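Can you please make up a protein's amino acid sequence together with its fold in token form to help me picture the idea?
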Amino acid sequence: MVGILVTGHGEFAKGMMQASQMIGGKADHARFVMFEDGMNLDDFGRELRQQMEQLLENCSNGVVVLTDLLGGTPFNVSVLQSQDLDSVVVLAGTNLPMVLEGVLTGPFAESALALAEKLVETGRSAVVLPDFSQKHQDDFDGEGI
């Protein structure tokens, strides 16, 4: 099993996890840590590290940390906190399909790196510019998930 840890600016991580739970249900191997405005960096780092370590105790194949923005504080602190931990992979540019894929397939993933590579593919393929021209109107039924 691979654990999933979502973090980002403001309520990004909380929102991603709430949406994920709404669609796919609650998952014990998935957690989030928010980086709130004015938050002490040491406290944020300690919380990230604690969540990584707790997930590693229960997720023998590692942890994937999903962050919002490459080079942002949540990404940078996640990288620093994970440097001496085995099997922790940090990604940036997270979108909801990545979180869902991680939560739903994490229990079956062979390694954090393998899951991280799959999540990058999922994230990229989920970004689309839909064509709502007349010729494609019949393909859209208006129903959501």
Summary: The longest strand covers residues 3-9. The mean pLDDT is 95. The beta strands are 3-9, 30-35, 63-67, 88-91.
